[in-house]
Amino acid sequence: MTEVLEKQSELEAVGPAFLKDKMLEMRAKTRNTIHAIAAACKPGMVEEDAVAMAKDLLAEGDMVRGWHDVYVRFGTNTLKTFGAPSDPGIVLKDNDIFLIDIGPVWGEFEGDGGDTFTVGDVPDQARCARDAKKLFHIVRKKWEDTRMSGRELYDFATEQAKAMGWELNLDLSGHRLSDFPHAAIYDGPMAEVDFKPSPLLWVLEIHIRHPTAGYGAFFEDMLLDDSYFA
């Protein structure tokens, strides 16, 4: 137990600029920007143009530097894992699904968030988008109510995703967040830590995929208690 606590103390260290209020402010800016990007994504838009538009919106909010790239993925590209290049030239259809994942830096503070949206009327795609967020909150609530470690939370998430009819992509399995850069402290996945992650310092990522159809959905936010999601 002492060894686990020592490891937690090491991996949850913060930098000299870390401030809770600034991290929460950055979270709000990140989530607001995600929804602004989504509102500007229209059928007929090419994915590469959507990414450029997203970068422009981030720059307008003085979030000009990202600790990871800007991802806006349309249709079949929603199956792609973090860091994988999108297939080029994908156009958002009248009935389609798309996801957004941004990791901006504002001043000295990191944000990270993601969400999935649909256009038109494809019930299974709409359910996929809803279920990514639903699963996020199922796992987040398990974190809030138990002493589960990061590793145990993602084992639980895998089982829950399967029960809902989806496959969980464990290449996207949570990580640290802090004053920039968190990677100087820990750049590995939350799914590999053997302690209960502390609030405000970690993000929970849920990327689900349809087992046979060509789409998936993503939701990502900080690990925080219910009061932050009212």
Please summarize the sheet with the most strands.
4 strands, antiparallel
Question: Strand share of the residues?
Answer: 15-25%
Order of helices and strands: HHHEEEEEEHHEEEE
Counted up, domains total 1
Number of strands: 10
Class by SSE composition = alpha+beta
CATH H-level superfamily: Creatinase/methionine aminopeptidase superfamily
* Count of runs of 4 or more consecutive helical residues: 5
Average pLDDT confidence is 95
How many whole angstroms does the radius of gyration measure? 17 Å
State the CATH topology: Creatine Amidinohydrolase
CATH architectural category: Alpha-Beta Complex
Poorly predicted spans: none
CATH class: Alpha Beta
What percent of residues adopt helix (DSSP H or I)?
Answer: 25-40%
In whole angstroms, how far apart are the ends? Answer: 35 Å
C-alpha geometry? globular
Question: Can you put this structure into words, describing what you see?
Answer:
The chain has 230 residues and is of the alpha+beta class. It has one domain: Creatine Amidinohydrolase. It is 36% helix and 19% strand. The chain is built from five helices and ten strands. The strands form three sheets. Strands 7, 8, 9 and 10 form a four-stranded antiparallel sheet that branches. A three-stranded antiparallel sheet has the order 1-4-5, with helices on one face. A hairpin with a 6-residue loop joins β9 and β10. It starts with a helix and ends in an 8-residue tail after the last strand.
